[in-house]
Amino acid sequence: MAALLWLLIPVIAAVGAALWGSWAGRHRHKAGDVNELSGYERFREAMEKSNSGA
Asked: What are phi and psi of 39, to 5 degrees?
């Protein structure tokens, strides 16, 4: 009986890992490419302004 209890520990750990993996890999709402591209454009403009003043 004690051996079965020791085998229960990895089984519980595997179930917990599977639950965590399914939670971590869930689909999330993404901001989209439009927000990313506009942020990149603002970054490029800021870099051009800082280089032109040197």
From this structure: -65, -40
